[in-house]
Amino acid sequence: MQTFIAVLIALSLAGCATAPGLNLPSSPEGSEVGWPKIYADETYLFDFSSSLSEAEAVGTIKNLQDSMVEHNANLPFSFLDVDAFGFRTRWSWAEGSMIKSAGFIIPYDQVSSILLQHYPATDKNFKWGVNVYMKGPSTVSLRTPTRDAAQRLGRAIHALAKARGAALSAPNPRFGAALSPLSEAQAKAAGLAFPGGLIVSWIFLESPAQRAGFSPQDIILSAAGAKVSKTEELFAVLDAIAAAGGKAAKIGGLRRSYRVEGEKYIEIFVPITFNLTFNPSSGGAP
Fold it and tell me: Could you tell me the pTM of the whole model?
């Protein structure tokens, strides 16, 4: 067992998120610290911008009717209505002698962001898809059979949302991870002064952060030698490097891991440095 844990820590220091098959606790026994969970679902850093016209985008969605399902329902759409202003659909199922139905509406002017998803652990056939986030707490999750179908669907929704003047946002392309300031409990557990540092919640695949070896639960303390405790501080450093024609930045921080003492997992935080590389113009791969 101790040999296996030693391998786990070695993998963690090398930049892997987790070792397969080991279900480590998210916090040590008795701890009230909330650490980001590590999910099997994968989110990709993907730019859905395109040159699609409104008519082409509407046609794309209509052509994909038989190649998408709502994430949880996993049922074919019995009704689909798409125009330049919205995306409306319904599906039906039988419960005993009753026929029930459900559906959703995506008003394009309310779309705030779109993310490309992959669900490798699902036992369903449609393992790719998009999450469409809208103003407020509303999100529509759609699954498709292939990555190509998901990308075409995302591009079409993006084109129609942009045409309606939606305020679309996207992950920072020079990093590519969900970040938040360390909580007071997290900082205390890591032996850090509060406030200070950023916690990585999840990594976008095919991003500079993934190529650099970041993992969920990593703590970022500095970028190019400058201390950072807010996401805008980190991105400002990366933007300044890119503006000067630079293509890389040293990111310093801590990696949360474990050592084993008898039957217990003991939480440890190991200093680590990442070499983040990016394209200074587009923000993507160098």
Answer: 0.81
